[in-house]
Amino acid sequence: MASVSTHGNQDKPHLPPLSKQSLLFCPKSKLHIHRAEISKIIRECQEESFWKRALPFSLGSMLVTQGLVHHGYLAANPRFGSLPKVARTACLPVRSAKLSMG
């Protein structure tokens, strides 16, 4: 038979008694969260967002813009051709992804 430990409360945070808790008390907010761990998670999310969302969308919009210039729907610059329009189009998705993340 398995032995039952009487020290089952060790992994739970120490909470004040119910009579001393305010109505706005949240037990989850009392847990200790490491700032280094949070910053690591945010950095991973930003990197994943760039590689899986912003970069593919940017490349796709560049191709669409180049196609529109090539077929005459957008006018090319007389000196630089389609480069200014394609470059601006490439920067928009990456910039908006960075702005939405803070």
From TrEMBL:
Q: Which InterPro entries does the entry mention?
A: OCAD1/2, OCIA_dom
Q: Where is the OCIA domain?
A: 34-94
Which residue ranges are recorded for the region named Disordered? 1-20
Q: Could you tell me the superkingdom of the organism this chain comes from?
A: Eukaryota
Q: Report one GO cellular component.
A: mitochondrial inner membrane
What the entry lists under PANTHER family is as follows: OCIA DOMAIN-CONTAINING PROTEIN 2, OVARIAN CARCINOMA IMMUNOREACTIVE ANTIGEN
Name of the protein this chain belongs to: OCIA domain containing 2
What is the species of this protein? Pipistrellus kuhlii
